[in-house]
Design brief:
It contains 13 helices and twelve strands. The longest helix is centred in the N-terminal third of the chain and has 11 residues. The protein has a single domain, classed as Aldolase class I (TIM Barrel, Alpha-Beta Barrel), CATH 3.20.20.70. The protein is of the alpha/beta class and 290 residues long. The protein has an eight-stranded parallel beta barrel, surrounded by eight helices. The chain is globular. Helix 8 links the parallel strand 10 and strand 11. Helices cover 37% and strands 24% of the residues. Helix 9 packs across helix 13.
Length: 290
C-alpha cells in the first residue's frame, strides 16, 4: 500500500510567511522558520518553500532562509519561485534544498526541465502547474504566481513536463487556492491517472475530509497544505509575535479574528487518514539533507 505524504507549504514574501486567496491579498502570518520547525516536529513528511514574488522580480531571495532551515530540519525541502537557470537551481540545492519547483521558467523554456533533470536528476525536479478552469471545461496553465495566462493546456503541459524529465508534479487549481472549499478532484485525478510520476495536490483544503478525498478520489500521491496547518498553529500560538513589521500584518494584530479560523494539525490529519484506510508515511527518523 502506498504511503501518502503530508507536505507543509510555506509561501514567503521577504522575511515573512504569507497566505492569501487565489494567490492574492497576501496577509503576514509570521516567520517561516517558526512554522517550519513546528511542522517538522509534528511529523510533516516534507516542506515546500515558495517565494511568492520571485517570478515578478526575476530572483529567489530564500537562500538564507533555506540555509538556516536545512541545518535544523531533516525532512525533504523543496524550494521554488524565480528559478530560471541551471545556476539558480544549483545555488538553491547548495543552500540545502533537496528539490526545486519550476513553473514560470519551465513554461517559458521547457528545455530547462530536460537540462535540469539530466544534470541534477529527475527526482530533484518538481514542475508546479497552477491552473484555471476555462468555461469549456479545459484548464489553462498560469505563471507568475497565478497572475498571468499562458494559453497552454494544463493537462498537455503536465504530460510534456514528465516527458522532459520532471520527477514530480504539483497541481494547484487557482480557483480553489486559499478558499478552504476542497481540492479540484477532476483536475488532480485526470493528471494523476495519466502520468507515471507522483502528483501532489495543492490548493483548497479546509478540513481533513478534503484531504482524504483528494488522496482517494483524486488519486493524488501527496497533499501540499498551507491554510489548514498555518491557522491551526496560529490558534495554538497566539501572541508568539514572531514576524517582521512589514506587509499586511493586520490579521496578526487582530487576535480575535485569528482565533476564529479553524484548522488541523499534522497528527490529526494523519490519524484521520489512517482511520479511513489511507496509509501515511511514518515520522522521519534520520537526516536526509546532504
Amino acid at each position: 500500500m502506498m504511503n501518502h505524504r503530508i507536505i507543509a507549504r510555506l509561501d514567503i514574501k521577504g522575511p515573512n510567511l504569507v497566505k492569501g486567496i487565489h494567490f492574492e491579498g497576501l496577509r503576514v502570518l509570521g516567520k517561516p522558520e517558526f512554522f517550519a520547525r513546528h511542522y517538522y516536529e509534528a511529523g510533516a513528511d516534507e516542506l515546500i518553500y515558495m517565494d511568492a514574488v520571485a517570478s515578478l522580480y526575476g530572483r529567489n531571495s530564500l537562500l538564507q532562509i533555506v540555509e538556516r532551515t536545512s541545518k535544523e530540519i531533516f525532512i525533504p525541502l523543496t524550494v521554488g519561485g524565480g528559478l530560471r537557470t541551471l545556476e539558480d537551481i544549483q545555488a538553491v540545492l547548495r543552500a540545502g534544498a533537496d528539490k526545486v519547483s519550476l513553473n514560470t521558467a519551465a513554461i517559458a523554456n521547457p528545455n530547462l526541465v530536460r537540462e535540469a533533470s539530466r544534470r541534477f536528476g529527475s527526482s530533484t525536479i518538481l514542475v508546479s502547474i497552477e491552473a484555471i478552469r476555462r468555461p469549456d471545461g479545459t484548464y489553462e496553465a498560469y505563471v507568475n504566481y497565478g497572475r498571468d495566462k499562458t494559453g497552454v493546456d494544463a493537462f498537455d503541459w503536465a504530460c510534456q513536463a514528465v516527458d522532459l524529465g520532471a520527477g514530480e508534479l504539483m497541481i494547484t487549481a487557482i480557483q480553489r487556492e486559499g478558499t478552504r472549499k476542497g481540492f479540484d478532484l477532476e483536475l488532480t485525478r485526470k493528471i494523476a491517472e495519466s502520468v507515471p510520476v507522483p502528483v501532489i495536490a495543492s490548493g483548497g483544503a479546509g478540513n481533513v475530509e478534503h484531504i482524504r478525498e483528494v488522496l482517494s478520489k483524486g488519486k493524488a500521491d501527496a497533499v501540499s497544505l498551507a491554510s489548514i496547518l498555518h491557522y491551526q498553529l496560529i490558534r495554538e500560538s497566539l501572541g508568539h509575535g514572531d514576524y517582521s513589521d512589514e506587509g499586511n500584518i493586520e490579521f496578526l494584530r487582530d487576535k480575535q479574528s485569528a482565533s476564529k479560523i479553524s484548522g488541523a494539525s499534522v497528527p490529526e490529519i494523519k490519524s484521520h487518514l489512517e482511520k479511513n484506510g489511507i496509509a501515511c508515511r511514518p515520522p522521519a527518523k534520520a537526516a536526509v539533507h546532504g
